[in-house]
Amino acid sequence: MTLGEILRVKGSTVYTISPDASLEEATRELVKHNIGALVVCDRDLEVGERLLGIISERDVARACASGRGSVAAIKVADVMTAELHTGSPHDTAEATMGLMTKSWVRHLPVLSGGRLVGIVSIGDVVKSQIEQLAVENQFMKRYITG
Questions:
Q1: Which of 58, 60, 53 is closest to 109 using CA atoms?
Q2: Which of 8, 42, 74, 127 is the most exposed place for a label (fewest CB within 10 A)?
Q3: Range of weakest confidence among 11-25, 59-73, 102-116
Q4: Is the pLDDT at 40 greater than 80, yes or no?
Q5: According to the model, what pLDDT value does residue 129 have?
Q6: Helix (H) or strand (E) run with residue 79 in it
């Protein structure tokens, strides 16, 4: 199964936030949409949208625990993960699971031709693998029982 197939089932909605937004705004967005991460983007009328990083619930928790100030005063850009790992719609779930595990990331933006087309979580990838194994299991049972 590919990331493109996962996105067709899951949907391709991606919630984004500006690097200048506060952690308070980011937290509201995470809760509002019941998601674990927001892609941080800079929007320019001439250049278009640029991916700058990702901010997750874990980043917010770390910032709160750091004592650097209130969530209203801390900017997303100050705590986001700027080293962004990305995938392609053609990447396999198996390869993506390896990348996410090796890189210790839970959310992976998916790009096609440099454009943001979706985001997958480690849960999405694991779910696709479990479904694939269930299909293979059924096939093998039918084959064995004739």
A1: 53
A2: 8
A3: 59-73
A4: yes
A5: 85
A6: helix 76-79
125-139: per-residue pLDDT in tens? 999 888 888 777 787
Tell me the C-alpha distance between 110 and 120, whole Å: 7
**Measuring CA to CA, which residue among 120, 138, 116, 17 is closest to residue 75?**
17
Domain boundaries, given as residue ranges, for the chain: 3-145
State the CATH class of domain 3-145: alpha beta
Q: Which residues are within 8 A (CB) of 7 and not within 5 positions of it... i.e. 6 or more apart?
A: 89, 110, 117, 118, 120
The letter for the amino acid at 129 is Q
CB 111 within 8 A of CB 136: no
Tokens of 112: 């096609």
Structure tokens, 81: 């993960």
Q: Please give the order of strands across the beta sheet that includes 48-56.
A: 16-17, 37-44, 48-56
- For residue 20, give both structure tokens: 């200048």
Residue 60 main-chain phi, psi, to 5 deg: -65, -45
pTM of the model: 0.86
